[in-house]
Design a protein that fits this description.
By secondary structure, the protein is mostly helical. It has 5 helices and no strands.
Length: 123
């Protein structure tokens, strides 16, 4: 398989991870065992956003793209693929803090509801 296909696969994996972080709490509402994967994913995503850390998948993708003769890019996955659509001006530290807070807030709401269902089901 070519390096370009591997890089494209990493992009798909990266995007799936982001969707899982944002929406995985809905899986927890159906089955609490998902929380064993979802909570660490949320913690990692919040850490990356709050500390402006670049996810290790991004340099790996860039290396594969360069190996395939394509240009890599600076910054992270969100800056390169999502922010041009969502925030054309670019990612700022303030936006990163807001994104991290959004991840936590969404998941707190879902987990409070999931725990409420669990406790309500025992009555």
């Amino acid at each position: 398989m070519s390096a370009r296909l591997w890089a494209d696969g990493l992009v798909a994996l990266h995007f799936a991870f982001i969707l899982f972080v944002l929406l995985g709490g809905l899986l927890v509402l159906r089955r609490r065992a998902w929380s064993l994967l979802h909570l660490p994913a949320v913690a990692w995503a919040a850490y990356v956003e709050f500390t402006a850390t670049i996810c290790p998948l991004t340099p790996w993708e860039n290396a594969l793209r360069q190996r395939a003769g394509q240009a890599g890019y600076d910054g992270g996955f969100i800056e390169h693929y999502l922010l041009p659509v969502i925030y054309p001006a670019g990612l700022t530290p303030r936006i990163q803090l807001l994104l991290g807070a959004l991840v936590i807030a969404l998941n707190v709401i879902v987990y409070v509801r999931a725990l409420g269902r669990r406790n309500g089901g025992r009555r």
